[in-house]
Every structure is written in C-alpha cells, then in structure tokens.
Amino acid sequence: MEGSSSSSKHFILVHGLCHGAWCWYKVVTMLRSEGHRVTALDLAASGVHPARIDEVHSFEEYSQPLLDAVAEAPAGERLILVGHSFGGLSIALAMERFPEKIAVAVFVAAAVPCVGKHIGIIPELIREKAPKDMLLDSKMIPINNKQGPGTAILLGPNFLAEKGYPLSPAEDLTLAKLLVTPTSQFVDDPTMKDDRLLTSANYGSVKRVCLMAMEDDLKEVHRYMITLSPGVEVEEIAGADHAVMCSRPRELSDLLAKIGSKYD
To answer: Which InterPro entries does the record associate with it (predicted)?
Structure first.
C-alpha cells in the first residue's frame, strides 16, 4: 500500500505481531487525505507477504521488507517510521542501519528498545510484567527453520476481543479475527540477544516519540520501557486500546501529522 510521491511527508507504517499492513487502513486513508505519502508494509510471512512462516529464518529476514523500503528511499527523503507493538523492534533495527534517512521514529503502544541492551529484553519484560493470563486463548505453534525448532504465536479471538481491540469498532475486531496469522517472536535469534546491536551513534541518534495508549492493558509495561531510554518524548492518546489505529485513528493520525511537521 503506497501513496503518491508528491505528498509532503513519507510515513512508513509497521504492524505488530500476527498483523499486517491491513490494520493501518484507517490511518493510511486519513494521512493520504491530508496530502502525505504513506507506505504500510507487510513484514515477511505477514499479511499478504508470500513467504511461509517456516521460510523466515531470522528476525532480520522478518524485518527485511522494512529494511528494503528504507534503503530504497530516494536520497534526501527523510522518513517517519511508525511501529506498533512488536513492530517497534523492527523499526529499531532500521534506525540502527539507516539513521541518516529517518527524521523521527514513532513507537505506538510499542516495544521500545534501548541502547546497551539486547532487543529481546523487551519481549522478556512483557512476559515478566504483564498479567499471567495475558495471552488467554492465543496458540503456540511449533515451527522449524534454519535456526532449528521454534515456536510461533497466533493471537486468539478472545485475546483480540479482550486485550487487543476492546474499545475498537466491532468491524475492526472481526477484521482482525479473519486476518491474523502466526508470527515467530525469534526468541533464540542471535540478533535478539546481541547487547551491542543498538548503538548511541546510530539508533540513539534518531529522534524517538512514544505514543501511550491509555486504555491498553500493557500501558504500565510500556511506561517502564520508556524509563530505560531517557530523552524519549511521550504523547498520550486517551481512550485508546492496544489497537490504537482502530480505536482512535483520528487522534493517532493527527498526532503523526504533528510529529511529522515538527521533525522535518
């Protein structure tokens, strides 16, 4: 899903676990209606991306569609990366690789990595600090790839209804139930365990803004992540559940446009 190259800003939107570019449909429409260029990506084996989950052998391969999009952006074009939930880890990888191309990164109810700690610490923190029954009816699915046996997660319909989309329109919950697909969290991937992956010179040099969904069950976990990265800007979206792009699309779109204008 791509917009016109004549628009004034270029937003690249990255989905979270088990989702795809489809979840951004409202925000894409709103930003484009205001003249911005928008690219909503399917990460590998997500949405309508053609790869099967067992063909995606690493977190880097999973994030490759984003890395390719940033690498291919025209010289001089400064991007606004937007990551939702687990998508925060993928945009962090792109920030480390291409800091000069990114005007600002926006973490929407997202995993927020910090310099000096491996990015896998974020899923670890969520498992540690989130309520023990957080995943409800989500399923763990055995997979095999080049790194050996692993596990993918498929978010269950009760989880989506109670934890992901409780304040979102019923149509958006139905859409999510129809379209979610299994995703690996790559817990054993060396990239996820590398304390030196994110550097102050690259990742740390990119402006970061965190958008807090104030009705998200993971709100306090996100707040704790932010304390690990001093200097990160924080904005709050009242009445937003975890699926911010569905529960509060207008507020999210307006905030993204405001942030884009601030960081030219």
So the answer is: AB_hydrolase_1 (IPR000073), AB_hydrolase_fold (IPR029058), MES/HNL (IPR045889)
- Give the pLDDT confidence score for residue 43 in this predicted structure: 98
Is a pLDDT exceeding 60 seen at residue 7? Answer: no
Q: How confident is the model at residue 6 (pLDDT cuts 50, 70, 90)?
A: very low
Residue pair 73/80 in contact (Cβ under 8 Å)? The answer is no
Cα 27 to Cα 120, 193, 264: the distances in Å are 28, 33, 20
234 residue type, one letter: V
Cα–chain center distance at 1 = 16
Identify the active-site residue in 58, 216, 222, 241. Answer: 216
Residue 44 · residue 56 · CB < 8 Å: yes
| Residue 242 annotated as catalytic | yes
Which pLDDT band holds residue 3 (cuts at 50, 70, 90)?
very low
Which of 129, 258, 224 shows the shortest CA–CA distance to 250? 258
Which residue among the candidates 46, 58, 63, 85 is catalytic per the annotation? 85
Domain ranges in the chain?
A: 10-131+190-262
Under 8 Å between Cβ of 211 and 257:
no
Helix (H) or strand (E) run with residue 13 in it: strand 10-14
Residue 139: band (very low, low, confident or very high) from pLDDT cuts 50, 70, 90: very high
Whether residue 1 has pLDDT greater than 70: no
Which of 89, 35, 100 is closest to 66 using CA atoms?
A: 89
What's the predicted TM-score (pTM) here? 0.95
